[in-house]
Specification:
The protein is 40% helix and 15% strand. The protein has 342 residues and is α/β, with parallel strands linked by helices. The protein folds into 3 domains: 46 residues; 130 residues, Rossmann fold; 134 residues, 3-Layer(aba) Sandwich (Rossmann fold). Helix 9 links the parallel strand 6 and strand 7.
């Protein structure tokens, strides 16, 4: 990943001093320095071709760094709130501040913030939630002339550094636990059918001769998933119980919010948890402790994740070579009352 275009680089290509380049790009020709029309046109042409953006602060102008990391996410759900807080604490240890950018799940707003960050207000960007255009945008803005330094939290993305939990292992752990407590029929609730956690869940069951798995979700509603999250989840939970399929004994919800919503709807419909239906969430966010019974969930190790995100982001900012482009954080299962009697 290349550094942002500097005044020094433009000056070298034009054959003038940095002061002259600064004067032209900041429209200060009337401040005592004369620049010929030909030189001015050449400076502007090269700056435009290289994608130069004026620095936001004097500090960035002279040091080349803002010591700030941007974090792009959709909404402060319980999990994202915990993750951002952990990232902030870890960033402070390394001398970085963080600036959050909330998109509401809108890809246009996401691109707006990516473009905004070209002025050097941040040294790098961590993205912790994605829209349908995110991969396209990340690939665009890490290339010339933008050259943003982007680190993504989540599943591996080609050419983009990522840090994420081992989703396939998460699915496997849930399958093994549900089988261990005696479940004979299974479902994956919400999220995307082609997600790694769903694949790990289904493949492990098939390896153990359980071929029938109900899947409900269709990714809920793209974009609106993070805007009307709770209401969309309620609609999906009602739909889950109104299908003609047999209600499964073991259910893996793609995240804790959906797990909590489904747990509430299950009890509302008269089923006993965990005797008749066992439910497992994913993320191990605080919401797991607010349900009755408390929600069993996959712990994605937020503190380890935050540490690895900042360590990796620091290397990217400093131009160090990454030994591994995609880092997987180990996971473990936290058993609670939604699957076992505590």
């Amino acid at each position: 990943m290349e550094k942002r275009v500097s005044l020094k680089k433009i000056a070298k290509l034009v054959g003038v001093s940095k002061v002259v380049v600064y004067t032209v790009l900041n429209k200060r020709e009337n401040k005592g320095i004369f620049v010929s029309k030909k030189t001015k046109e050449k400076i502007l042409k090269i700056a435009n071709e290289l994608g130069y953006v004026s620095p936001k602060s004097a500090k960035e102008l002279f040091s080349g760094k803002s010591d700030t990391i941007g974090i792009i996410f959709h909404k402060l759900t319980p999990f994202f709130s915990q993750l951002v807080s952990a990232i902030q604490q870890e960033a402070l240890k390394h001398g970085f501040e963080i600036t959050p950018y909330i998109t509401g799940g809108d890809s246009n707003i996401e691109e707006h913030y990516l473009n905004l960050c070209r002025d050097g207000r941040v040294d790098g960007i961590i993205t912790v939630a994605h829209t349908d255009r995110s991969i396209e945008l990340y690939k665009k803005y890490t290339q010339k002339p933008y050259n943003l330094k982007i680190l993504s939290y989540g599943p591996p993305i080609e050419e983009i550094p990522t840090v994420g939990f081992n989703e396939e292992k998460a699915g496997q752990l849930v399958s093994a636990h549900l089988m261990e407590i005696g479940c004979k029929s299974f479902a994956y609730f919400g999220g995307e059918k082609n997600s790694k956690r769903c694949k790990g869940f289904i493949d492990y069951l098939k390896e153990n001769k359980y071929k029938s798995v109900i899947w409900t979700g269709e990714r809920l509603i793209p974009h609106q998933l993070f805007v009307g999250y709770y209401n969309d989840g309620i609609k999906l939970a009602k739909k889950f119980f109104e299908t003609d399929n047999k209600i499964p004994e073991g259910i893996f919800a793609s995240n804790d919010i959906l797990g909590a919503i489904l747990l509430k709807e299950t009890i509302k419909r008269g089923f006993k948890i965990p005797e008749q239906i066992a439910i497992v969430g994913c993320d191990n966010s605080e919401i797991c402790l607010y349900t009755e019974p408390e929600l069993t969930s996959i712990d994605v190790n937020i503190n380890d994740t935050a540490k690895k995100l900042i360590e990796t982001m620091k290397k990217i900012i400093n131009g160090e070579e990454l030994k591994t482009l995609h880092i997987k954080i180990p996971v473990n299962l936290v058993k609670r009352g939604s699957t076992v009697k505590i």
